[in-house]
Amino acid sequence: RHKNSYHCSQSSFKWLKNREEAMTIFYYFAPLLLFRLAISVCVSDIHISRFRDPKRVPDFEKFCSETIDIIQPVLVLVTGDLTDAKTKDKLGSEQIEVEWQTYQLILKRSRVMEKTKWIDIKGNHDSFNIPHLDSIQNYYRRYSAWHKDGSFHYVHRTPFGNYSFICVDATLSPGPKRPYNFFGILNMSQMEELSSLATESHHSNQTIWFGHYPTSTIISSSSGVRMVMSSATAYLCGHLHTLGGLMPVLHSRHPQGTLELELGDWMENRKYRILAFDHDLLSFADLNFEEWPAVLITNPKSLLYSSSTHEPLVKILHSTHIRILVFSPSFITSVKVSIDGVHLGDAHHVSGPLYVLKWNPQNYSEGLHHIDVTVQDAIGKSSTQGHTFAVNENLSLRFGFLSSLILLTDHYILARILFGLTVLVQITLLLIFRYLRKPTLKGPPGLVMLTSFSLHVLSKTNTFYYSVLILSLYTALGPWFIGEVIDGQMGICFSFGVIVGGHFLQGSLTFVVGILQMIFFNLPLMAYLCWCLLLRCQGHSFCSHIRHVRHFLAVPIHLTMLLLLAWQIYSCYFLQRTYGTLAFFLSPMKTWLSGNWLCDLLCDPG
Ligand SMILES: *[C@@H]1O[C@H](CO)[C@@H](O)[C@H](O)[C@H]1NC(C)=O
C-alpha cells in the first residue's frame, strides 16, 4: 500500500536525487499521507534592496535554509515584490540587476528549490520601468525560479487528492515607473484566461488562488476578479504590507465566500505564513520569522475562516482526533489542549509536525467553543494559539469592518467617483455664483454671507472666473505631464490614465493624485482668492467689519498657502526625480502652475 502511495506521489517528489533519499523522505511523509495533510508556506514582499536594510538578505537566506528545513513544505508561494527596484533617494524606480542576482544567489546557496516547489511571482516593484515583457530589463524572466510571465495553474498531486494553485498576474505591461503602477490591471483576454484556468481547477479537491495585488487594487473588466475566483477557497496576496503597521491582520471574505488573506511583508515585518490542507479543510497561521514554536491547529479549524460552500466542514463532526501542527528547531516537551478553558490532555506526537489528541466532537455539537493549545519546547520557549470553532455547520462569524473595507472596496472606482465629485463641486460653485444675482448686503456680515459675497465677486470677475474654471477643467481633462514614464519611452499622464508605448493604462492612482491636487491646491487656491478679494474690497460698506479679523487670520492663511505651495514645488521635484527633467518642464499641471503662482506672489504680495 505504501509503495502505491509513493508511486502516486512521485510527481511531487521528483526533485529527489536517489531512491534512498526518496525513501527517507517518503517515510517522513507517510503518516502525513495517511492523515491527508499537505503543508505549504507563503512569503510576500521581500524587497531585496541594494540600498536599504542590510539584514533583509541574510535573514531571507536563513528563512530559505533553516525555516524551510524545519517546516518542510511541499510548496512555497512567494507573492511578489521579490526586489525593491527603488533608486537610492527612494523616489525613482528601475530594475537593478544586482538585486535580482542576490535573490537568485540566495535560492542557489540555500538549495531551497531542491527541497520544495518554489513558486515566485512578480509584484509591482518587479515590473517598474519595463517597456515590454521581452525586454532585457525584465530580470524576473532571468533570475526568478518560475521564469514565466502571466497567470498559470499549478496542480499539487498527492495520493489523497489534487490541490490547485492558480496565479493571478495583474502586473502592468508596459510597466511604468512608480508610483503609477500601484494598481494592477486585468484586461478582457487575461480575464478569459483566468476563467478557463478556473474551469480546469474544478477537478481538484481544493483550489487556492494567489497574486500580488489584493482584489481591491486590481482593475478588471467584465464580471470582476472576485467573481472569476469564486470557486477558490482562498485568495492569497501581499502588496499592502501591514499598511505601515496600521493593519497587522488584513483578512476578509468575498461575498462569494472566498477568503482573501493578505500577508504582511518580509521587508520590514519578516512575516510568513504556514498553510495546510487537512482532510480538505484549509488552515493557516501568519507568523514572524524565528518565533518558535510555531503552532497551527488544523482540526477543529477556525470558524471565522470556514466556508461551507468551499469545504467539507462536516468532517469536523466525524473526526476522531484534534490535530495540531507544531514546528520548532528544538525538542517539543508538551502540547497541552484545552477547550472552553477545560484542560483535555496532552496531544501526542505522530510524525513530523503532527500532534493528535483523541476527542469526541459530539460533546461540542451545540454553539461556539474555544480551543487553546499551549506548546512548550526544551529550551523553555512556549507559544499559545487558539480560535473559536463550531461543529455545527450553520454558524458563521464576520470579519472586522476595517479589513473588509480595505480588501473589498474597489478603490479605483471610489477614487474615480470622489475625484469627479470634487471637480464637479468646484465647477458648480463657480457656475452658480456667476449666474446668481448679487445679494443685497444688509445686517451684520456672518461667515456665510462673507463667503457668498466673495464667491460672487470671484465668479463675476472674468479673469478669476476663467482661470479657476480652466484650472479645474484642465485638472480633469488636460495632460498633467509628458515624460519618460518608462526609460526611453515617452508617456502622457492624464487624470483618467497614462498613455505609454502605444498602450493606454487605465487610471487608478492618478485619480487619487487628482483628488489630492483638488483638495490641496485647486480648492484652497479658490478659497484664498476669495479671501484676497474680500480684503481688497476696501470702501465697501461692511468691509470695515473685516479689518480687525484680518490681523490674526492673515498670518495663518498666508502660511497655509505657502505650505501648499511648498508641496506643489516638492511634487515638481518628485516629477523630475521619477520621470526625468523633461517631465519637469513639460508639466502644465505642476511646474507651470507653481511657477505662475510664485511669480504672482513675489510681484504682488498684497
Ligand atoms: C479528494 O477528492 C476525491 C474525489 O472526490 C476524494 O475521494 C478524496 O477523499 C478527497 N480528498 C480528501 C483529502 O478529502
Automatic annotation (TrEMBL):
**Keyword annotations:** Membrane, Transmembrane, Transmembrane helix
| Domain Calcineurin-like phosphoesterase residue range list | 42-242
Its lineage reads: Eukaryota, Metazoa, Chordata, Craniata, Vertebrata
InterPro entries named among the record's database cross-references = Calcineurin-like_PHP, Ig_TMM62, Metallo-depent_PP-like, MPP_TMEM62, TMEM62_C
Q: What is this protein called?
A: Transmembrane protein 62
Source organism of the structure: Terrapene triunguis
Q: Which PANTHER family match?
A: HELICASE RELATED, TRANSMEMBRANE PROTEIN 62
What's the domain of life for this entry? Eukaryota
User: Would the keyword Transmembrane turn up in this protein's UniProt record?
Assistant: yes
Membrane-spanning ranges? 25-46, 413-436, 464-483, 515-537, 549-570
Q: Which residues form the TMEM62 Ig-like domain?
A: 290-392
Limits of the TMEM62 C-terminal domain: 419-545
Q: Name one GO molecular function term.
A: hydrolase activity
